[in-house]
């Protein structure tokens, strides 16, 4: 984590706590005092955000369902806790970056980070605080890496190709005058 500027100055615990607070704030919790019906289309209905978030989660789940890394095909699929961590990390990051939101392939990147964090060579045991903060650390690393990766996921605006109506045709006498503007004065 220190290679990415995290943890070297005591900020790791602060970043872990900040992620936990953010994740918990983003969870939708309907309460009894909310007087909005889930099907109401009122602009101030908090259920509107729930449905928007649900759409994002379904989009993330679509990619997570296809997560079968070569050589470790069942690594994530057999661990519901890992899948939940991946979903949470992607959801929180996307909510923090709404202009980019979720793009296909982000799940592969965050999965590599999680895999590296739980790699058996680290010999994580249950007393290691990295187990407790596995999701937090995965988010912190993903967020740092996405600083450099974000441009690769941005949607570029491309000018539309010219239509046949936009392309000038040669004139009746066979010259290409229309291609280059009006003919010079004689």
TrEMBL record:
Q: Does the keyword Lipoprotein apply?
A: no
Region described as Disordered: spans on this chain: 163-186
Query: What's the source species for this entry?
Result: Aphanomyces invadans
Outline the extent of the Rab-GAP TBC domain: 1-186
For this UniProt entry, the molecular function terms from Gene Ontology, in alphabetical order, are: GTPase activator activity
Q: Recite the UniProt keywords alphabetically.
A: GTPase activation
Q: What is this protein called?
A: Rab-GAP TBC domain-containing protein
Alphabetized Pfam families for the sequence: RabGAP-TBC
Q: Which PROSITE patterns match?
A: TBC_RABGAP
